[in-house]
Amino acid sequence: MKKKLIQAIAAANKDASPNRTALDTTEDELYKTLANNLQLGVYIAVDKRLQFTNFHLQEYTGYSRTEMMDMDPLDLVHPEDRDRTVTDAVHMLKGLRFSPYEYRLISKDGQVRWILETVVPIMFKGKKAVLGNSIDITEYKSAKMSLQEFDALKASILDAIPQAVVGLENRRINFANTAVEEVFGWKPEELIGKSVTLFYRNEKEAEQIGSHFYSTLEHQRTFVSEFNCRRKDGRDILCRMRSARIGEALKQRRIVITYEDITDQRMAEQELANSREKLRNLSLHLQSVREKESTRIAREIHDELGQSLTALQMDLAWLSVSIPQAGPALTAKIQRMKNVVDSTIESVHRISTELRPILLDDLGLIAAMEWQVGEFQERTHIPCDSRFDLKESIVEKDLATAIFRIFQETLTNIVRHAHATHVRVRLLQKGNELRLDVSDNGIGITEKDIDNPASFGLVGIRERVNPWGGTVDITGKPYKGTKVGVRIPIRSGRKT
Ligand SMILES: Nc1ncnc2c1ncn2[C@@H]1O[C@H](COP(=O)(O)OP(=O)(O)O)[C@@H](O)[C@H]1O
Ligand SMILES: [Mg+2]
């Protein structure tokens, strides 16, 4: 449209004879067209003074027709752009330049507007004049600028990402960010146009990875996986790769892949898992050594001391009947000795049972726990409501020991800390889970005690549960009581 206009004006100018009247007729028509129909800013300047401005120009400069009359058009131009604009305009007027030029205009209210302009020499009222056509391209400019900014932002984001990012088209790299150098040792520019195969260990694996990626991306947009990759220096690394196809369909097989080197992370995870495993085994080993030692001592005390004491008991019985004429002093002495031996036998029995309840080995977990409940009630006079509902065959020996020891610790804690008047014990099998719940109605354990790493009794409970892949849940409510809940999966066996 603008071109046509300029041609029309130029043609009108050429056709116009130096005859004033003819020129004025064209001029009138021109005025009308300019003023009414154009979406362009139009001006005519004679001797660097504006003689005509159309409505559109008035609109975007913010000046009225009368304000602009006799103004130097250059006054409207941003001071920094003036020299260049003069040069461009002069070149155009001399026919040395054909494309429009751009400059910034300062509007009356101080706004900067981008203008695209052409100028052409005309005759106006018999004088050499300049006809200017301009378009306000501010909005287009700012859109373009924000697009450029966006591109710059995109580039800097991509370069700030620690993962290598590459764009692929038919498995050829057409884009790579700077992090590819850190991850793979290749410079981005070395990669453009190359096959992505050079990130992998061999052709075969590259083929597998490629077909895996493309077939998955056919039906989903993004996808994460881990693969072995190879660096430029030949070192192999494990990468977590995320890929996304570009666009809705997998046309031209265009995708973006990010590679994150997780070799160290994976190694650290493995080391951590290994050392956890070692610790677990060690704790298991220590416990079993301790249990064995206790069992041995318990048996020795029970058998050796028990037998000797029984022999003594029998000898004393024999003595008391074998010396019928013994005086009352001797009889009393023998009786005292009998009493001491009896209570010693009882102590030995108690000590050996505490070391290792032979019941646990001989009669099983439930019998041992029932015995422990009886002992507890007798000793503390605190009523204990207990229920055991469990097939003993599912509890292997080491697990039975663990549960029994945990149970003993919870009861000991109740005696020592709880000030309880009632205790409830449940040992049940629920689905594939073994549950031990011991609760009391005492003062309630505090959070601090629960989390305190120096609560060795509680730490011991957790340690005993750990090897079985179980959990311990301890809760306390002030003056309502304490609850210890142990959950152990059955049949999954020991975690290895
Ligand atoms: N049943 C309970 N009621 C109230 N407080 C308890 C109970 N069990 C444990 N606690 C508190 O938790 C702390 C830690 O228990 P534990 O690790 O067994 O250590 P210890 O029994 O040797 O003090 C105890 O000192 C006690 O303050
Ligand atoms: Mg304790």
Provide the descriptors you would attach to this structure in a database record.
binds adenosine-5'-diphosphate; single chain; Beta-Lactamase; 15 strands; binds magnesium ion; five-stranded antiparallel β-sheet; disordered C terminus; alpha+beta; 496 residues
Please explain how this structure is put together.
- Mean pLDDT is 87; it is low at 5-23 and 492-496.
- The protein has 16 helices and 15 strands.
- Helices cover 51% and strands 23% of the residues.
- It folds into four domains: 2-141, Beta-Lactamase; 150-261, PAS domain (Beta-Lactamase, 2-Layer Sandwich); 282-356; 359-496, Heat Shock Protein 90 (2-Layer Sandwich).
- It is an alpha+beta fold and 496 residues long.
- The strands form three sheets. It has a five-stranded antiparallel beta sheet, with helices on both faces. It has a five-stranded antiparallel beta sheet with strand order 7-6-10-9-8. A five-stranded mixed beta sheet has the order 11-12-13-15-14, covered by helices on one side.
- A hairpin with a 2-residue loop joins strand 4 and strand 5.
- The protein has helices at 2-15, 20-37, 55-61, 65-68, 82-93, 138-160, 179-184, 188-191, 203-219, 263-322, 328-355, 358-362, 365-380, 397-418, 447-451, 456-465, and strands at 41-46, 49-53, 101-106, 112-124, 127-136, 164-169, 172-176, 222-230, 236-245, 254-261, 384-389, 423-430, 433-440, 471-477, 481-489.
- Residues 409, 412-413, 457 line the site of magnesium ion.
